[in-house]
Every structure is written in structure tokens, then in C-alpha cells.
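Retry 2 of 3 after timeout on previous attempt. Resubmitting C-alpha cells to design endpoint.
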């Protein structure tokens, strides 16, 4: 393993943990349920190609992305299995999707029309697509109450395209089993109203939270995302194995006299003689600026407070109580370092957001250093 990328600030990603988290999902829903790992947004910011490689030993049925460009990236990287593009895709991108063998997910009849036209232009036959049924999420999908109507139109779309799957997306599976069951009932009602034999379709509904909370809704396939990457899927759900560690080196240490001020706005003032350590990481790396004067880091297994405002490139911690610390030492801002570790969820809560946003907000400036312990 190269250490040269770990000079200033970086992310360590445990491939083995990603794999084991997917295995836990499989254990929850059972062997017969297909796995469709979500690798959108560059695998939640961690690196799509490495994530796909880490998951490969579990033989997932296919991969889930949000955009055509993400699907093309998967293909360019050599991935040959089914690729579902979950977000509605803009007009003008259907041909590219077909050209790369991607499976679009449709939410209305105008999208069906665009797909049929693109298939005709490309001379495609039986180009596969899935449909989303909106059972309460609202942002995408055909209305669950109207399935008889739009279903007939799908059935008459011609031989250029083929409906191969149908799914819905839950809005509250992280907190609420009951609301999730209500959505599932609506989804089943829509499936019953469709003029398609359900056995010819791949039926899927569960994100990470639903797969763990209501594994009996696993249907034909599940679509876990956050849990694979070490993000808790709900406070009361089994935690994943941690995947991500965010680290930065100390680039400067200062001894400052009482009254010294720190950072933009001089929001922190030294009360006595203090030792400040400047870390080579800032909000330009995706460390939330809202952690200024609130968050903490772990250095040599001890927690130290982030003081002052976080700048674009630098963050300062108070190390007065840690005499042995030197320039070049590593500070951990998310994850690991023993019992003093800072969880992703703790950081998200302090920053007033969710673990998803912390992960996907980690900027390209941080090298993603993938490691594999080789364990199953
Ligand atoms: C992102 C996404 C998922 C994964 O959700 P997690 O909460 O990260 O497990 C599943 N399905 C769809 C349609 C998504 O967009």
C-alpha cells in the first residue's frame, strides 16, 4: 500500500467492511432476494469503481445509479451487469442510455414516449426499463392510484421496449414501520392493477432502512446504499460496520499567550497560555464549517476540541493537554481511533445534517485510500 497519498488530509475506506455490510443486508432479507447496491454519487462519495470491486464477491444482481453519466462510468469501468438509472432522466439522454445498455426507470408516459422514440432511432428491440410507482414519495413515479390507466399504455408501447421491473421508494423506513407498510400496500395494489404478469417483473422496494426494519418486504430485490458505506440506516436499527475514516495531519503547532485570537471573526480567544494545532483540512475538503467551535478530533487516542471557525483549508484544535503531540501527527475527524472515535452520525448531528450529506460532501481534494483486510 502506498502511503504517499496520506500527506495532508485523506479518507480511508475499508473495502472489507463494505462487503460485510452488504452481507448483513443479504442475511436480513434472505439468499433469494437480489442485491442491487446503490453506487450513485460515486458510491456516496467513496469511489464507485472501488465500491463495485469490493461488492463483487457477493455477486450482486445489478447496480443502481442516479444519472446516465454515472451508468456510462460503470460501463467504461468494465461493469457488464444490469445498471438501473433511478432518477428520471432528461430528454435528450435516452439514446445515450440505450447505447450503453442502461436500464432507465420511468415515472410518466412522456418518458415512455421518449424511450420508445430513442429505441426506434437506435434500432433497439425489447430495450428493458423499470417503472417507479409513487406511493407517497412524490418526487418521482407513476401515481399508485392510477396504475390501471398508465399500465394499459405501458402494455401497448410496442416491441422496441420491454417492462422488466417495477418498484417503489419508501419515505420513512428509517423511523417508521407503519408508514412503510402503508406504502407497500399501495404498491401491491398498483401491481395488482397492472396488465402484466407479476412473475415476469423484478419487484423491488427496500432501501437500507427498509431491508433491515421490514425484511419481509424484500420482494425480488433490495437497493441498499448508506448502510454499505458505514452510515446508520436508523437510530434503532442494527449499526453497520464502520467504513470511513477521515484524517488530516497537523501542519503547524503554536504556543499562544492569553488573549490570542483565532480564525475568521476571532470567535475564539485563548484564556491562558495554550497550544494550538493547525490541521491541513477545512470546509474546502468537505469538513462541515458548522463544526467550528463545536466539533472535535481525535489525536493519539484523545479527543480535542475544534476551536474557532473552520477555514477553507485549515482547522485548529486545542492540544494544550497533549504534550507529546508533534507536527505531522494524524488527527481523526470522522471514525476510528479506538474508544474515542467520532462517529459519522455524531458529526452529522453536530453539523445539523444527515450522514448521507457528510459522505457525499467530502470533496475531490481528499484522496480516497481504499484498504482491504481480506476477511470475508
Ligand atoms: C438512494 C436510493 C436508495 C438507497 O437508499 P439508502 O437509504 O442509501 O439505503 C434506494 N433506492 C433509491 C431509488 C434511491 O434513490
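Retry 2 succeeded. Sequence:
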Amino acid at each position: 500500500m502506498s502511503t504517499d497519498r496520506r500527506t495532508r488530509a485523506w479518507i480511508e475506506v475499508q473495502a472489507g467492511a463494505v462487503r460485510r455490510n452488504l452481507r448483513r443486508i443479504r442475511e436480513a432479507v434472505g439468499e433469494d432476494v437480489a442485491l442491487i447496491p446503490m453506487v450513485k454519487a460515486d458510491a456516496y462519495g467513496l469511489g464507485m469503481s472501488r465500491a463495485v470491486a469490493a461488492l463483487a464477491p457477493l455477486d450482486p444482481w445489478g447496480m443502481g445509479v442516479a444519472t446516465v453519466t454515472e451508468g456510462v462510468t460503470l460501463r467504461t469501468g468494465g461493469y457488464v451487469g444490469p445498471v438501473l438509472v433511478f432518477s428520471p432522466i432528461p430528454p435528450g439522454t435516452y439514446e445515450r442510455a440505450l447505447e450503453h445498455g442502461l436500464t432507465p426507470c420511468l415515472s410518466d408516459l412522456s418518458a415512455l414516449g421518449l424511450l420508445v422514440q430513442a429505441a426506434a432511432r437506435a434500432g433497439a428491440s425489447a430495450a428493458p426499463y423499470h417503472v417507479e410507482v409513487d406511493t407517497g414519495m412524490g418526487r418521482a413515479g407513476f401515481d399508485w392510484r392510477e396504475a390501471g390507466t398508465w399500465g394499459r399504455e405501458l402494455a401497448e408501447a410496442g416491441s422496441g421496449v420491454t417492462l422488466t421491473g417495477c418498484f417503489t421508494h419508501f419515505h420513512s423506513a428509517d423511523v417508521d414501520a407503519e408508514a412503510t407498510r402503508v406504502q407497500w400496500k399501495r404498491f401491491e395494489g398498483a401491481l395488482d392493477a397492472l396488465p402484466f404478469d407479476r412473475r415476469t417483473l423484478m419487484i423491488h422496494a427496500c432501501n437500507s432502512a427498509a431491508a433491515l426494519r421490514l425484511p419481509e418486504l424484500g420482494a425480488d430485490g433490495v437497493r441498499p446504499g448508506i448502510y454499505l458505506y458505514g452510515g446508520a440506516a436508523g437510530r434503532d436499527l442494527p449499526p453497520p460496520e464502520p467504513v470511513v475514516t477521515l484524517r488530516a495531519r497537523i501542519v503547524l503547532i503554536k504556543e499562544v499567550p492569553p488573549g490570542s485570537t483565532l480564525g475568521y471573526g476571532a470567535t475564539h480567544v485563548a484564556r491562558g497560555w495554550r497550544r494550538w494545532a493547525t490541521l491541513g483540512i477545512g470546509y474546502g475538503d468537505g469538513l462541515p464549517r458548522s463544526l467550528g467551535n463545536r466539533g472535535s478530533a481525535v489525536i493519539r487516542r484523545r479527543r480535542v476540541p475544534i476551536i474557532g471557525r473552520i477555514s477553507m483549508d485549515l482547522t485548529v484544535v486545542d492540544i494544550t493537554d497533549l504534550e507529546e503531540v508533534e507536527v505531522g501527527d494524524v488527527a481523526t475527524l470522522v471514525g476510528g481511533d479506538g474508544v474515542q472515535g467520532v462517529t459519522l452520525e455524531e458529526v452529522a448531528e453536530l453539523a445539523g445534517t444527515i450522514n448521507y450529506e457528510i459522505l457525499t460532501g467530502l470533496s475531490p481534494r481528499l484522496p480516497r485510500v481504499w484498504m482491504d483486510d481480506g476477511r470475508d
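Attempt log closed. The chain has eleven helices and 19 strands.
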